[in-house]
Write a structure and sequence with these properties.
- By secondary structure, the chain is mainly β.
- It has 3 domains: 32-322, Beta-galactosidase, Chain A, domain 5; 325-595, TIM Barrel (Alpha-Beta Barrel), CATH 3.20.20.140; 596-695, Immunoglobulin-like (Sandwich), CATH 2.60.40.
- The protein has 10 helices and 45 strands.
- The strands form 6 sheets. Strands 1, 3, 4, 5, 6, 7, 8, 14, 17, 20, 21 and 22 form a 12-stranded antiparallel beta sheet that branches. Strands 2, 9, 10, 11, 12, 13, 15, 16, 18, 19 and 23 form an 11-stranded mixed beta sheet that branches.
Length: 696
C-alpha cells in the first residue's frame, strides 16, 4: 500500500503497523510539501523526491528497518532518468565528550581551556529507529527520526533537503543534562562494504586527487582544501563537507588538521567502509576549547552532502561555489579588510637574518583570499615595545618598510599592534600612517620628540599619554576578543574611563568565539556586547577580527577567517597614507561577514549604518536591506534597543533557495528605540552583520 504524504492535510496521520518495520510515518495535518516535493511510504521504505535544479530531481530512499542501512539509495535524475549515486549507507557520528572549565575564568566564554588534557571519552552514537516524521519549512523538507543515544546524550536524526539543489544536511541533534560539558564530533556515511569506486579530494595546493579504493584499507585522515571528500561511482558522485565556519571551533592557529577521512573501521568505532569529516582532538596543541554543550541545549552535529553526475571535478567546483572558492567576493563600491594577524614576519624573518622573499607566502595566501586590506598585529610578545629606544624604533622601521614594499595597487598591508599596555585587557592600535612610539616614558622624557631618522617619536607612560597619542595622530583603538581570553572583564571594567568614552576608542572586535553548535548564529558573545554598548548610549563599532598566528598555503585559513566590507570608492595607496580606512571604520560605513552572506545595502528610513536619524512621531520606520547569499538563508534579524532592553524582529527566510540576491523591507514601530542594526544568517550558520543606525 502506497500513501502520498502530500495528502496529509486530508489524511492527518499515516501509520504503518508492521512487525518488521516497527516505525511510524507521521506528519502534521497541515503539512504542505514544497513545490515539486513528493513523499511516499510503503511497508519498509519512505521515499522523498525533491527538485534539485534545472530539469533535475534528487531522491532519498530511507529504510525504516533496524539493523539495515538507513539510506537504501541516494539518486539523482538526469534528463528524467534516475541513477543511483550511492546505496546502502548509514549516516554515523562519533561524539567526544570532555569537561569545560567554568570556574577559573569567565564561564562558557572561556578560551584558555585545554579540554583534551583532561579526561574525555569518544562514543559512536547509537541509532535505534523508532519512527519518522516529515515536515516542511519554507523551501526545505525536514525528515526527523528519533532514536539517537550516547552515554550522556539523547536526541533525533534530522535530514534537511534543499529545494533547487541536489543537497541535503544530516544532523544528529542531541542534548545532555550534564553540566560543564565540552564536545567534538566526527561524522560521515558508512557502509558494510565499500559503497564507492574512488575517492576524490583537492590537496592543500588545489590539485584534484583520485584514490583507487578497490582494496579497502584502514581509514586515512587527509589534509584537503575546501574541507570536502568525494565518493565516486560509475553513475555519479557524492561530496561530504561540513559547515565552512561553524564546524571549526576557535584556535590560535589555522593549521590544517586533516579534517576529512575515508576507509575502513574509522577510529575503531565505525565498523565498515566510509567517508566523512573529522576533528583532531588535540587541536593546535595550544589552548583547545572544543565546543560548548550547556545542559539542555540542542547540539546540532551536522554535515552536508551534495550530489553530482558530471564527474568529481565538476562536483568539487559546485561545492566551492558555496564559499566563492574560499575567497571574499568583490563587491562594487567596497574594499575588503581583515584585522588581527600575529604573523610575526618582522621578528621571525626580517630581523632574524633570514632571506626575505619579494613575495612572502603569507601575502600570497591573503591575496588568494580576496582581501584588499590587511591590518596586522605584530610584535605580540616577540619584540621590545618598551625599548631600548634604538631597538624599538628599528623594529618599527622594519615593519613600516616591509608593509610599504609588500603593498601594491590592490593590496594594502598595514602596520598594527596589540599593545596590551595602559588601558587594561588586550586591545589593538591602528594609525593612518607610520607612527614611531615607545611604550614607556621615564621621568624627564618628553611625550613627543624629534630625531633626524624617524621624525616624531612618542614616549607613552600611561593611559592618558596613550589617549593623547591617539588624538595627536588620529589613531583608533578597540578591545580585542572582548570579554574573553586576555580581555576577560573588558571593556566593561573601563567603560566609564575617558579613553573609552573618547571617539578615538572605536569599540571592539567580533570573532566566532566561543563555539556552540546549538546556536543559529556565530559569536553571540560579541553581539551581546554590541547591544550592551548600544544601550549604554555609546556610538561604538564592532569590526570583525581573525586573531591568528601563522599564515601558510597549507593552512585551513578560510574556515577561521572573516572580513569587513568597507564602503570605499577606491583602494588607498600606502604612500599616501590610509586615513580613508580609519574614516570608514569610525563612521560605521561597513558590514562584516564570514563571506557567504553579503549585506549590500541597509537603511532605516533611508539612512545607513553609522548615521543618526530623527524618529517620526509615530515611531514608524522602514527597514530596507539588500543581501546576496550562497547557502539558503535561515533568517534575518533586526535588533534594536531603548537604552535598557533589546528587541528582536526575526524575518523567516527559509523560503530562499541557494545562490540568490534580494531586497527586503520591513515596516516596524520603533517608538522609544534608540538604535537598530541587522544580522543575516544562512543554513550553514554563516552570516553577516551591519553597524548601528542611531535613533533620536
Amino acid at each position: 500500500m502506497v500513501h502520498q504524504l502530500k495528502h496529509l492535510a486530508l489524511c492527518g496521520l499515516l501509520s504503518l503497523a508492521f512487525f518488521k518495520v516497527q516505525a511510524q510515518v507521521s506528519g502534521n495535518k497541515n503539512f504542505k510539501p514544497a513545490a515539486g516535493v513528493s513523499v511516499m511510504a510503503n511497508t519498509a521504505n519512505v521515499t522523498v523526491t525533491w527538485p534539485a535544479g534545472i530539469n533535475s530531481k534528487a531522491k532519498l530512499v530511507l529504510n525504516l528497518k533496524n539493523g539495515e542501512p538507513l539510506f537504501t539509495s541516494v539518486q539523482l535524475s538526469k534528463r528524467g532518468i534516475y541513477k543511483p549515486i550511492i546505496e546502502n549507507i548509514d549516516p554515523q557520528f562519533i561524539l567526544t565528550e570532555g569537561k569545560r572549565d567554568l570556574i577559573s575564568q569567565n564561564g562558557w566564554n572561556i578560551f584558555f581551556d585545554k579540554v583534551p588534557l583532561k579526561p574525555h571519552h569518544s562514543y559512536k552514537i547509537d541509532f535505534h529507529k523508532k519512527g519518522i516524521s516529515v515536515s516542511n519549512k519554507g523551501s526545505r523538507t525536514i525528515i526527523t527520526l528519533p532514536g539517537l543515544e550516547a552515554p550522556n546524550f539523547k536526541g533525533d536524526l534530522e535530514i534537511t533537503l534543499y529545494n533547487g539543489e541536489p543537497m541535503f544536511n544530516v544532523a544528529a541533534i542531541v542534548s545532555t543534562q550534564i553540566d560543564s560539558t565540552a564536545i567534538l564530533y566526527d561524522a560521515g556515511l558508512v557502509a558494510k562494504t565499500n559503497p564507492v569506486k574512488a575517492v576524490n579530494y583537492s590537496d592543500v595546493y588545489e590539485h584534484l586527487q583520485t584514490e583507487d579504493v578497490s582494496k579497502p584499507d584502514t581509514a586515512k585522515n587527509l589534509a584537503v582544501k575546501y574541507r570536502t571528500i568525494i565518493g565516486s561511482n560509475d553513475k555519479g558522485s557524492i561530496a561530504v563537507f561540513p559547515a565552512p565556519h561553524q564546524y571549526f571551533y576557535p584556535l590560535d592557529e589555522a593549521f590544517n588538521l586533516k579534517f576529512v577521512w575515508y576507509g575502513s573501521n574509522y577510529r575503531n568505532l565505525l565498523p565498515g567502509y566510509g567517508l566523512g569529516i573529522r576533528q583532531e582532538l588535540q587541536g593546535d596543541k595550544r589552548y583547545v576549547p572544543w565546543f560548548n554543550a550547556p545542559p539542555g541545549t540542542k547540539q546540532r552535529l551536522n554535515f552536508f552532502c551534495l550530489l553530482g553526475n558530471d564527474g568529481a571535478d565538476n562536483l568539487l567546483n559546485k561545492v566551492k561555489q558555496f564559499t566563492h572558492d574560499d575567497s571574499y567576493k568583490p563587491l562594487p563600491g567596497y574594499k575588503t579588510m581583515a584585522s588581527h594577524f600575529h604573523n610575526e614576519f618582522i621578528m621571525s624573518v626580517v630581523l632574524a637574518g633570514k632571506p626575505v622573499p619579494d613575495s612572502p607566502s603569507f601575502v600570497k595566501v591573503l591575496k588568494r583570499q580576496g582581501i584588499n586590506i590587511i591590518h596586522l598585529a605584530e610584535f605580540h610578545y616577540t619584540a621590545h615595545p618598551k625599548g631600548p629606544d634604538e631597538q624599538r624604533l628599528k623594529e618599527l622601521k622594519a615593519l613600516f618598510d616591509q608593509c610599504s614594499h609588500l603593498s601594491d595597487s590592490n593590496f594594502l598591508l598595514l602596520p598594527g599592534e596589540e599593545p596590551n599596555e595602559f588601558f587594561g585587557g588586550h586591545w589593538l592600535a591602528f594609525f593612518p600612517k607610520p607612527v614611531y612610539w615607545v611604550m614607556s616614558r621615564k621621568a624627564g622624557t618628553p611625550f613627543e620628540s624629534t630625531d633626524a631618522e624617524h621624525g616624531k617619536v612618542y614616549h607613552i607612560g600611561d593611559k592618558a599619554d596613550m589617549l593623547n597619542l591617539l588624538k595627536a595622530e588620529n589613531g583608533l583603538a578597540w578591545t580585542a576578543h572582548a570579554r574573553t581570553k586576555g580581555s576577560t572583564g573588558f571593556p566593561d571594567a573601563y567603560k566609564k574611563e575617558d579613553f573609552y568614552l573618547s571617539d578615538r576608542f572605536l569599540g571592539a572586535a567580533w570573532k566566532a568565539l566561543p563555539a556552540d553548535l546549538s546556536e543559529p548564529r556565530l559569536g553571540k558573545r560579541v553581539f551581546d556586547l554590541m547591544d550592551d554598548m548600544n544601550n549604554w548610549g555609546l556610538k561604538k563599532k564592532i569590526l570583525s577580527e581573525a586573531d591568528l598566528f601563522s599564515i601558510e598555503p597549507e593552512n585551513e585559513m578560510y574556515a577561521h577567517l572573516n572580513v569587513n566590507y568597507l564602503k570605499l570608492a577606491k583602494q588607498p595607496q600606502y604612500k599616501n597614507g590610509w586615513q580613508p580606512v580609519l574614516d570608514v571604520l569610525e563612521q560605521g560605513k561597513f558590514f562584516s561577514t564570514t563571506g557567504e552572506v553579503l549585506i549590500e545595502d541597509f537603511t532605516v528610513n533611508g539612512h545607513s549604518s553609522g548615521e543618526t536619524i530623527a524618529l517620526p512621531a509615530d515611531g514608524k520606520c522602514t527597514v530596507n536591506f539588500k543581501t546576496s547569499w550562497t547557502f539558503p538563508l535561515n533568517f534575518a534579524e533586526i535588533i534594536s534597543g531603548d537604552g535598557k532592553r533589546v528587541y528582536r524582529e526575526r524575518i523567516d527566510l527559509t523560503s530562499t533557495q541557494a545562490f540568490g540576491t534580494k531586497t527586503f523591507n520591513k515596516v516596524l514601530n520603533m517608538k522609544g528605540r534608540k538604535w537598530a542594526r541587522l544580522e543575516v544568517w544562512d543554513a550553514a550558520v554563516d552570516g553577516a552583520y551591519t553597524q548601528t543606525v542611531w535613533l533620536k
